[in-house]
Amino acid sequence: MHALSLVCTLNASPTSSSSLLLSDQVCAELDKLGVTSETIRVADHDVRPGIGTDMGEGDAWPLLREKVLRSDILVIATPIWLGHPSSVCQRVLERLNAESSQTDEQGRPLLYGKVAAVAVVGNEDGAHKVSADVFQALNDVGLSLAPGAVTYWVGEAQQGTDYQDLDTTPEAVADTTHTLAVNTVHLAKLLREHPYPAG
């Protein structure tokens, strides 16, 4: 099985990123379960605005889309900005929206059978709201979500500590990340063996 993690930090490489750190921890848990993974920092690529699969010359989404379609598991990692997913995350969700009209030979959306998970970081409240927004969008385009499909960390509001500034990973975050990985892989295996029926 293969996982793709799209990290939606606003910062391009090589700037450090709390979203990238939590994504890496999710991928490490998936690796323990025999899942290979690839991580892409979306801000490093020219993903054009729109809801098409290809927005023309220079659009980096078609290459990223191929990676999404080849994966069994899609992880979306985003910071919280102004109580919402990042603008980069929103753009990824908008581009994924094009998949609603793309179907396989049995008429099912191409993302049916793939499983998604979410990782959220921030130093303000809003992890549940952000995960709810992203969950709904992912489900709308055909991805499935296991129980406990989000892991998150939020620091004290209006303070400057980031997740990457912590000396150690809080036990609650580590446990939640482990549960996310176990449940997500379990569901992905089930859907591989028992695909959704054609409409």
From TrEMBL:
Residues 7-147 form the NADPH-dependent FMN reductase-like domain. It holds the Pfam family FMN_red. This is Flavodoxin family protein. It comes from Streptomyces mesophilus. Transmembrane segments: none annotated. GO terms for molecular function: oxidoreductase activity. It comes from the Bacteria.
